[in-house]
């Protein structure tokens, strides 16, 4: 198999050297060029035709977000953002993922372990095969009061490519949407920026989940990540429980952890698994389905990475498939009643 041609874009020679060292350890990857500015990156794209790019968020003259917007208009390609933990870096990285960047990786901090950053090579290799052409479709919405009474809560789990997918889902949610809880694979600082961004764009109230939160109509809660999984507790009415613990299915926050903790309330749950690499959420979705939940998978055609939904289907956890453009409306419809969805 030919190697994956990779372009590194970062204004720091030290960071470019570190990224190159990590990527070149992976036999699947070949670093064909480096660039320190957006203009140099543009020239390298035209000259070397890379399969995938790592892109710094904060760069001189034209930052990573501005360059990404232009790139996705003229030559859409898989991009992995590489960001510091500054507020500006986190905000820009989240915006970049909503524009079509496949994933975002934290730059290592001084004195911190580089273990997480060493996963960059696999993230880049997987991103190279991402379907980046689907992320530019957008669903229009009008923030209205629906007047509907919802009998179920919505659970959404996603990973690589799901930032844009979640935005498309929430665009059609009304002010009085069903209680909705989301677990998205992202670093803690990025999740805070993600929730803040959604709250300014969407009709419902969107924020990070807090310990003891109740399931309220019109509220979308996002797992805060860090050291916590977002789970549920309570005898009849579920409440949010932020649980510290090791990674589950390779992740923290974990979609499997959220789905499994919702099994006691399964008959009052509509759960969707979105684009993402790996298998997190697949087993938990099967347990929810077995216990009476309505379960939906994002269609292969609209996934950036068809990993988590594929494994969920292999385990028998998915009742129906849905294109991302229709998934928001489908969740709202299925949360209205206990109607059954036929098997795939």
UniProtKB/TrEMBL annotation:
Q: Where is the active site?
A: 159, 185, 280
Q: What is known of its domains?
A: Contains a C-terminal catalytic domain, and an N-terminal region which modulates catalytic activity.
Q: Which residues form the CheB-type methylesterase domain?
A: 144-332
Q: What is its EC number?
A: 3.1.1.61, 3.5.1.44
Coiled-coil segments on the chain, per record: none
Q: Where in the cell is it found?
A: Cytoplasm
Task of the protein: Involved in chemotaxis. Part of a chemotaxis signal transduction system that modulates chemotaxis in response to various stimuli. Catalyzes the demethylation of specific methylglutamate residues introduced into the chemoreceptors (methyl-accepting chemotaxis proteins or MCP) by CheR. Also mediates the irreversible deamidation of specific glutamine residues to glutamic acid.
**4-aspartylphosphate (modified residue): where?**
56
A Pfam family the protein falls into: CheB_methylest
Primary location: cytoplasm
Recorded hits in InterPro entries, A to Z, give: CheB-like, CheB_C, CheY-like_superfamily, Sig_transdc_resp-reg_Me-estase, Sig_transdc_resp-reg_receiver
Q: What is this enzyme's catalytic activity, as reactions?
A: L-glutaminyl-[protein] + H2O = L-glutamyl-[protein] + NH4(+); [protein]-L-glutamate 5-O-methyl ester + H2O = L-glutamyl-[protein] + methanol + H(+)
**SMART domains given for it?**
REC (SM00448)
Name of the molecule in the record: Protein-glutamate methylesterase/protein-glutamine glutaminase
For whether the record's keyword set contains Phosphoprotein, the answer is yes
């Amino acid at each position: 198999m030919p190697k994956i041609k990779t372009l590194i874009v970062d204004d720091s020679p030290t960071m470019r050297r570190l990224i190159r060292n990590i990527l070149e350890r992976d036999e699947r990857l070949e670093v064909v060029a480096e660039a320190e500015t957006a203009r140099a990156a543009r020239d390298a794209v035209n000259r070397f035709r890379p399969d995938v790019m790592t892109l710094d968020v904060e760069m001189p003259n034209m930052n990573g977000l501005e360059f990404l917007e232009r790139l996705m208009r003229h030559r859409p390609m898989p991009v992995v953002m590489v960001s510091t933990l500054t507020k500006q870096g986190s905000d820009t990285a989240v915006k970049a993922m909503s524009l079509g960047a496949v994933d975002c990786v934290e730059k290592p901090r001084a004195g911190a372990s580089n273990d997480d950053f060493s996963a960059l090579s696999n993230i880049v290799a997987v991103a190279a095969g991402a379907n980046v052409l689907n992320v530019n479709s957008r669903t229009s919405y009008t923030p209205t009061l629906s007047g509907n009474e919802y009998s179920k809560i919505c659970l959404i789990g996603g990973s690589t490519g799901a930032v844009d997918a979640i935005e498309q889902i929430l665009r059609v949610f009304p002010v009085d949407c069903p209680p909705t809880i989301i677990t998205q694979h992202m670093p803690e600082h990025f999740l805070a920026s993600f929730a803040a961004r959604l709250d300014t764009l969407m009709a419902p109230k969107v924020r990070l989940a807090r310990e003891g939160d109740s399931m309220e109509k019109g509220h979308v809660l996002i797992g805060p990540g860090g050291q916590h999984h977002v789970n549920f507790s309570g005898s009849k009415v579920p409440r949010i429980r932020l649980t510290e613990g090791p990674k589950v299915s390779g992740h923290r926050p974990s979609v499997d952890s959220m789905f499994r903790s919702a099994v006691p309330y399964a008959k009052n749950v509509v759960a969707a698994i979105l684009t993402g690499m790996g298998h997190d959420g697949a087993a938990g979705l099967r347990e929810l389905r077995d216990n009476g939940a309505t379960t939906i998978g994002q269609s292969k055609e609209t996934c950036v990475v068809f990993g988590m939904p594929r494994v969920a289907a292999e385990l028998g956890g998915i009742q129906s498939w849905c294109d991302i453009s229709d998934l928001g409306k489908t969740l709202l419809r299925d949360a209205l009643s206990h109607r059954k969805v036929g098997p795939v």
